[in-house]
Amino acid sequence: MTITCLDLEGVLVPEIWIAFAKATGIEELKKTTRDEPDYDKLMRYRLAILKEHGLGLKEIQDVIATIDPMPGAKEFLDELRSLCQVIIISDTFTQFAAPLMKKLGMPTIFCNSLVVAENGEVTDFKMRVENSKYTTVKALQSIGYDTVASGDSYNDLAMIRAGKAGFLFKSPDKIKADNPDIPAFETYGELLDAIKAVLD
User: Fold this and answer.
1) Partner of 115 at 20 to 30 A CA spacing, among 36, 57, 60, 184?
2) DSSP of 153-176, one letter per residue?
3) Residues labelled catalytic
């Protein structure tokens, strides 16, 4: 049996931190895993900026409430889920993902969690496991599943390379150029066809 593992941000929904950066006018928050491969370093950077500006979880969640899935994402996900099991494996956080999952029809998501103080300040974050995307697909394989994976960023590469097949989706040119062996697609139709070919 094959499970398809998908990244969330940049694949199914817009980048949350970029939307928050636009809403607050804080340009530094536009940096994502497309720019910084070290996720721990990226999150420490983000938390310092939030603290500096006195912004907490509520302000981020207010912006997330305005975010909709990318055009065609829910239809793509619905069709894919009719063909195989799908798990979204994301480095985002449960406090961010919950409203977005409702808009996507409540798919399964494995993600991380934020540590939030009583006053709403985001003080830390807890990763579910180290190198969570790769670790998760290896765990699925260890209990007898094949995996197919797709994502757009540096932190998706290990997950993409670890399975039966893997695809880049809407990735920056640099990531595509650095990984010419990984098929890269720009539309949900192309990605769905590629996954179907693996499932057949």
Assistant:
1) 36
2) SGGGHHHHHHSSEEEEES--HHHH
3) 7, 9
What span, in angstroms and rounded, lies between the C-alpha atoms of 137 and 146?
9
> Is residue 184 assigned to a domain?
yes
Question: Which residues, including other chains, have CB under 8 Å from residue 37's CB and lie 6 or more apart?
Answer: 154, 155
- Mind listing the pLDDT tens digit for each residue in 78-105? 999 999 999 999 999 999 999 999 999 9
Note if the pTM is more than 0.85: yes
pLDDT at 188 over 90: yes
* Residue 156: half-sphere exposure toward Cβ, Cα within 13 Å: 35
Residue 166: strand pairing partners = 149
> Which CATH number does the domain housing residue 133 bear?
3.40.50.1000
Q: Is residue 166 part of a domain?
A: yes
| Helix 94-103 × helix 57-64 angle, to 10° | 20
Asked if residue 20 is part of any domain, the answer here is no
The number of domains in the chain is: 1
In sequence order, the β-bridge partners of residue 168 are: 151, 184
3-class DSSP state of 61: helix
